[in-house]
């Protein structure tokens, strides 16, 4: 049977004091004790609430960025390899990857004949101005082949895409990205209209718009709506003069679609052997990447970013934990006589220790639950911010709150209460009952 002693009715104690307490009773007493000084408790909870809210929001931003980049890479197509030019090294100085002019349209045609390859889509790029009725847009001019939409999982929203006849005739036709179409034409149908494209400050060339691509949106890989597609042969012959050392027209990227994922490594080896033989080089002047490589790199980068954001937000949890320690030390001082009475009637050290630990964890637990709600609200607010600057297709930061992040937040909040409540609880448990009873 539990011993019970009735304490005087005060602001802090209005019911019998029990020697041994169950966890439920300890939580109830903790909530009642915290409600005595509401302002002090609210200020203590604020540190935990802000800390947990910041952690939830920052983890949501990091996880959202990781999910958005993963989805963007996967939306490029399936079983893709990306063949890029290598680097240039002059005077012992090595330039960045992609700076060498080594890949050609003929390389792409040769790769298409390899076993296991089901599609090839070379790209050539140039940055220029697109003009229509006084509107001037700076964008990327992308030279492509008819295979581009199928390999890169890109679809036409209006009109048609570049065909084989356009490619062979070097036709001056263009397909606009959704963002460019919106900036130049607004709500007007651009199909059939004529735009002027100028590259490197050269006189503009008139192009007939034959289609508009579906919106793809922006990501860490760039805004796919901010470009104009034209036949690659037209770009090479009429807008640019970039050539290899042997005089062949260059391409900036060769997209290669492989029949099955298990053939990726085999096809990579075949492409390497083919290009070394064609370029007659001992050292590779090209780089081959797969979607798997890109996903791994993106995952590592976003993972580090998520940890960094969470760590920065976690600093506020330390501040909140110090607040918990402070309020518990004050509580021990205010309740010294109560502790002495409990010990005098038989309460053990572990009973006192457990009570104050539960009180500290109650504070942090309540703050953690409120902080999760605050973090969810912050994450939602961040996801509504348009970072496009009001031009083109709206771009918003994606946020993602996962169950493991919520469980982590709850666990961390309880751990903070436990860690910062240990010292005040041990101090209370070590009080000598005689000295405690003498305390006024």
List the helices and strands and how they pair.
Layout lengths: L3 E2 L11 E2 L4 H14 L1 H38 L4 E6 L3 E2 L2 E2 L10 H8 L4 E16 L2 E10 L3 H4 L4 E4 L4 H6 L3 E4 L1 H8 L8 E6 L5 E9 L13 E5 H8 L13 E6 L5 H16 L6 E5 H44 L1 H9 L4 H35 L19 H27 L3 H6 L2
Parallel strand pairs: 7-12, 9-11
Antiparallel strand pairs: 1-2, 3-13, 3-14, 4-5, 6-7, 6-10, 6-13, 8-11, 9-12, 10-11
Helix pairs in contact: 1-11, 2-9, 2-11, 2-12, 9-11, 9-12, 11-12
Summarize the structure.
The protein contains 13 helices and 14 strands.
- CA gyration radius, whole angstroms: 33 Å
- Low-pLDDT sequence parts: 1-18, 90-96
Strand fraction: 15-25%
Q: What is the rounded distance between the termini? A: 30 Å
* Widest beta sheet: strand line-up: 6-7-12-9-11-10
Portion of residues within helices: 40-55%
| Biggest sheet character | 6 strands, mixed, barrel
Content-based structural category: alpha+beta
Order of helices and strands: EEHHEEEHEEHEHEHEEEHEHEHHHHH
Coarse morphology:
elongated
Name the quaternary structure: single chain
């Amino acid at each position: 049977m539990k011993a019970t002693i009735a304490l005087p009715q005060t602001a802090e104690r209005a019911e019998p004091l029990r020697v041994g307490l169950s966890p439920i009773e300890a939580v109830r007493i903790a909530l009642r004790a915290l409600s005595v000084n509401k302002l002090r408790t609210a200020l203590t909870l604020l540190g935990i609430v802000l800390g947990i809210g910041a952690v939830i929001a920052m983890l949501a931003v990091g996880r959202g960025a990781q999910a958005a980049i993963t989805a963007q890479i996967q939306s490029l197509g399936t079983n893709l390899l990306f063949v890029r030019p290598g680097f240039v090294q002059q005077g012992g100085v090595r330039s960045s990857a992609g700076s060498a002019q080594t890949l050609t349209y003929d390389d792409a045609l040769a790769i298409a004949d390899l076993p296991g390859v089901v599609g090839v889509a070379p790209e050539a790029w140039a940055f220029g101005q697109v003009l229509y009725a006084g509107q001037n847009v700076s964008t990327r001019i992308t030279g492509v082949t008819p295979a581009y939409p199928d390999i890169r999982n890109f679809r036409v929203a209006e009109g048609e895409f570049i065909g084989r006849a356009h490619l062979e005739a070097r036709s001056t036709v263009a397909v606009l990205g959704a963002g460019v179409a919106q900036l130049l034409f607004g709500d007007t149908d651009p199909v059939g209209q004529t735009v002027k494209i100028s590259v490197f400050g050269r006189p503009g060339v008139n192009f007939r718009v034959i289609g508009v691509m579906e919106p793809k949106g922006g990501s860490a890989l760039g805004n796919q709506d901010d470009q104009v597609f034209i036949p690659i042969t037209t770009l090479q012959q009429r807008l640019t003069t970039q050539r290899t050392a042997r005089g062949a027209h260059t391409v900036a990227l060769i997209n290669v679609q492989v029949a099955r994922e298990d053939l990726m490594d085999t096809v990579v080896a075949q492409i390497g052997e083919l290009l070394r033989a064609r370029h007659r080089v001992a050292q590779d002047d090209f780089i081959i990447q797969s979607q798997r490589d890109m996903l791994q790199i993106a995952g590592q980068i976003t993972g580090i970013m998520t940890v960094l954001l969470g760590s920065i937000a976690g600093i506020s949890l330390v501040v909140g934990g110090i607040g918990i320690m402070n309020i518990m030390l004050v509580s021990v001082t205010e309740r010294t006589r109560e502790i002495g009475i409990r010990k005098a009637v038989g309460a053990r050290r572990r009973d006192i220790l457990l009570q104050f630990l539960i009180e500290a964890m109650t504070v942090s637990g309540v703050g953690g639950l409120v902080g999760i709600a605050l973090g969810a609200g912050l994450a939602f607010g961040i996801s509504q911010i348009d970072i496009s600057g009001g031009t083109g297709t709206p771009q918003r930061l994606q946020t993602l709150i996962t169950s493991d992040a919520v469980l982590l937040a709850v666990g961390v909040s309880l751990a903070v209460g436990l860690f910062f409540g240990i010292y005040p609880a041990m101090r209370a448990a070590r009080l000598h009952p005689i000295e405690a009873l003498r305390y006024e």
